[in-house]
Design brief:
Layout: H1 2-18, E1 39-42, E2 48-51, E3 71-77, E4 80-81, E5 87-88, E6 92-98, E7 102-107, E8 116-122, E9 128-132, E10 143-148
Antiparallel strand pairs: 1-2, 1-10, 2-3, 3-6, 4-5, 6-7, 7-8, 8-9, 9-10
Length: about 150
């Protein structure tokens, strides 16, 4: 008898864990086809670009099922000399999804197994955006600003 209750409890818990979150749990305001599509350049040093015009097929390489509004972008960067003299380049491919004031990023080159949240702001005219410091480069501000170039 206890075995049946234990199995029933496990089934109920499994079903509860599989329930989808409602729309209020992640207040998504843009899809992957949002107003930030295009190519953006970092404003202060102009050595890093974000290209949001990338195929969503890259999402097939994420080790879990990404959110329905996920997209991808490529960070292209000029290399720089690190403090130890080695060449560094923060370039990479990222999967992302947006919420009201955050962007969640997953680097394809990182061992992380989940998306990481960063503050995200898009100007009202959609000509500039800012993302909390998500890659390393000496001299860039904590809030990295980009402007649209195409």
């Amino acid at each position: 008898m206890r075995f049946r209750y234990a199995v029933l409890l496990l089934v109920v818990l499994a079903l509860a864990a599989c329930q989808k979150n409602g729309p209020d749990s992640l207040e998504r305001t843009f899809s992957a086809d949002g107003p930030y599509l295009g190519v953006w350049i970092e404003k202060s040093q102009r050595k890093d670009t974000l290209n949001f015009d990338t195929p969503k097929a890259l999402l097939d390489r994420v080790p879990w099922r990404p959110p329905s509004n996920a997209g991808t972008f490529i960070l292209s960067s000029q290399s720089y000399k690190d403090y130890d003299g080695s060449e560094r380049s923060p370039s990479g491919i990222y999967s992302y999804y947006r919420t009201k004031d955050s962007i969640y990023l997953y680097s394809f080159y990182n061992a992380a197994t989940k998306y990481t949240a960063y503050e995200f702001r898009l100007s009202n005219d959609h000509k500039s955006l800012a993302i909390d410091h998500f890659f390393e480069r000496p001299g860039i501000p904590e809030m990295i600003e980009f402007e649209r170039i195409r």
